[in-house]
Amino acid sequence: MSALTKPSSAQLARRLEELAKAGDRYWDFVGRDAREHVHSLFHYPAMMVPRLQRDLIETCIGWDPTIRLIADPFVGSGTVMTETMSVGRDFTGTDINPLAILVCRAKAECLNAKALSCDLRRLLRFVASDTSERIEARFPNRDKWFERHVQVGLSRLHRAIQAGSSARARRFWWVVLAETVRLTSNSRTSTAKLHLRPPAEFASRPNPCTVFEQVAQRNLESVRIQCKLLANNDLVHRGKYVGRCSLRVADASHPASWMADLMVTSPPYGDNHTTMAYGQASYLPLQWIDPSDIAEVGLHSPSSIREIDSASIGGSWTGALQAVEPLLDRSPQLRRTWDHLRVQPRDRRVRVAAYFRDLDACLASLMTGLRRGAVMVWTVADRSVGGERIPLSAALPELIGDRAELVTAITRGIPQSRKSMPANNSTGQTMRRETILILRMASSQRSRRPSMN
Fold first, then answer.
1. Strand 245-249 with 260-265, pairing
2. SS3 of residue 421 by DSSP
3. Is 90 in contact with 50 (CB distance < 8 Å)?
4. Residues 403, 399: Cα–Cα separation, whole Å
5. For 317-362, how does the pLDDT look when each residue is reduced to its tens digit (9 = 90+)?
6. How many CA atoms lie within 13 A of 417 on its CB side?
7. What is the Cα–Cα distance from 110 to 202, expressed in whole angstroms?
8. Per-residue pLDDT tens digits for 196-225
9. From residue 348, how far is each of 261, 280, 314, 375, 388 by CA, in Å?
10. Which of 159, 194, 225 is the endpoint of a domain?
11. Residue 332's domain spans which residues?
12. Which residue among 35, 115, 232, 330 has its CA within the 20 to 30 Å range from the CA of 175?
């Protein structure tokens, strides 16, 4: 399809509107939000709804079949990546969290369940013959977060995984180990933030080797099903996905290394310290994983609980109040909110300023990686700070400005557990709704931008 025959933005909006005619709450995906197959390999915080992302991707491809490369700069556990693979397109993804990239690489690379099953038998034999009580992980407060018998079991699993010869297989087992860590540590599994269980529960923490085998068998079955689904569409050859899939640990504010036709993503809805603590949730698993198997040489395990979250959007407050001022001229919605925030305590204003400063830096970089006329699909939500709603869904298109036109905006209800803050959090309240923003990069002629209602 040549540039002269590219479909119009209005046609894309109509396709999305047609889907909504199936019901008033079509986009809420009530009863259709299951995370099946490899989407369930690891319990990552605030995972996206797979079928929802599939509908968005398929609609965009149906509108423009020339779409080949799809990008997600906040890739998380790889929902967009996995759905991209299911439609046979190339994918590129980044995330600042090494554990996210590990999970994604395991989902993208490890599609040979038979070979993995054989390797699991080897791994379990290795663990059974290992009588060493040497502890492999070294990090502050290790004994606080893990009982001695758990540390011994995790160390034996660590050594067994390292003894494997295939980096692809090791990455799969590291993900199994990460889930084992989550289930056997002294931290509660009901929250992303590290929070100790009642001391009475410490001694009864399960045997990591038993948990590992259970998780491994469950994950292998997920891989079998996923591989079969891809094979039915001729998307697997010799246990490998036939398309290209590129993943790396990277800050979204760094220059994009790709040139995509479609970007489908969902950024953090606020700074990770007070919204969803992805880094905290990843801290303990990363202490037991060999970082050289995740990505490039030089990657290290986080040295503190807050290291990853502090490096994420809004994580640093330095110079934030000064940096936000130019953004207020570009976003009337943000300016109105900022005027209300002026009476709030300084730390709340700094938190909001740091978030939008960093988000704007990401926008500047990400859009250099999109082709002219490419489509962006952003899933966002408005959090609250000090009782004041922060209008991310309205401010994002304003900050993008003339670089892209707003095609349409879809509002959907979300479950209370997704990308939300607890109601007793002093910096916000539970988010009930998300907005899906569909924008199109400007072409040679500037397009009018529809208003958001």
1. unpaired
2. coil
3. no
4. 9
5. 999 999 999 999 999 999 999 999 999 999 999 999 999 999 999 9
6. 11
7. 34
8. 999 999 999 999 999 999 999 999 999 999
9. 37, 21, 12, 33, 10
10. 225
11. 12-108+236-441
12. 232
